[in-house]
Each structure stands twice: as structure tokens, then as C-alpha cells.
Amino acid sequence: ERVDLRLRVRALTAIRSLIVGFVIKDRQGQPLFGDNSYLTYRAAPIAAAPGDVVDFSFQFRMPVLPAGDYALSVAVSDGVQEDHVMHQWVHDAMILVSRASSVATGLIGIPMLGISHSRIENKGGEGAEE
User: Fold this and answer.
1) Rounded to a whole number, what is the largest CA-CA distance in the chain?
2) Which among 29, 10, 32, 31 has a CA at the least distance from the CA of 88?
3) pLDDT tens profile 31-77
4) Which DSSP symbol is given to 129?
5) pLDDT (0 to 100) of residue 103
6) Which residues pair with 73 in a beta bridge?
7) Which pLDDT belongs to residue 32?
8) Residue 116: exposed, middle, or buried by beta-carbon count in 10 A (0-12, 13-18, 19+)?
């Protein structure tokens, strides 16, 4: 399904290059997927003064998760992807429960757009009756 994850950040100190991100982890704490705002805003970094409130929205298609509990963790930092200061990391900010039963294999399933086949006609080749 389409997801619009919204995160609201209130700056308590001046931030020159705000990076906000999230990660979804399985019940063993293994990160399954996530993202952050850095690449989208690296050419025009977002600054925030103390007291500023900035809303972030991440839109994506949720992969199909095997039935069970998952944790959403969120983070706020200042800097660039390779060199930043972590201001806040909220482990297990929200618990998600999946009741899906359609995961074929792996840790996550992909929303399949379709499965089709076509038969190649056997013109006297191997396996053809004579």
C-alpha cells in the first residue's frame, strides 16, 4: 500500500543542515528498509532556528511484511550523510503490526504488479510427438 509517513521536528538549537530519517526493523532489530532527507535536500540544505517546527513527509509503497511486529525508529541530525551530529534518535518510536499472509520468500515481499507466462510453440523439436 502507499504510505505517507510524516515526521514533525522542533529544533531546540540552531541546525545548519537538517537531516531527518527513519528505519523499519524486524523483531530481531534487523533493519529492513528506511531513508532520510539528505539526498533530496543536499543542494539546498534545510536550516532551522531554535523553536522552528519542520514537517517531513516520506511517500513510498510499503513492501509486504511477513505477519508480526515491526518497529519504526526515527532520527534527526545536522550535517551531511558522511559527517553529521546526531541530535535525536528515537528507537521503537512506533510499533507496526503486519497481518499479511502473502509473502512468498525472504524478509519482505514486493507488491507484485502481475505474474504472466507465454507458451513457446514446439515445432517438432525436443518433446514433440511425431
Assistant:
1) 84
2) 10
3) 999 999 999 999 999 999 999 999 999 999 888 888 899 999 999 99
4) -
5) 62
6) 23
7) 93
8) exposed
Asked whether the CA dihedral 54, 87, 65, 96 is positive or negative, the reply is negative
Average model confidence (pLDDT) across the chain = 87
How are strands ordered across the β-sheet holding 31-36? Answer: 31-36, 18-25, 68-80, 83-98
Q: How far apart are CA 3 and CA 87, in angstroms?
A: 26
Cell numbers for 39, please give them: 539526498
In the block, residue with C-alpha cell 507496526: 96
Extract the C-alpha cell encoding 35.
Answer: 531513508
Cell of 121: 510453440
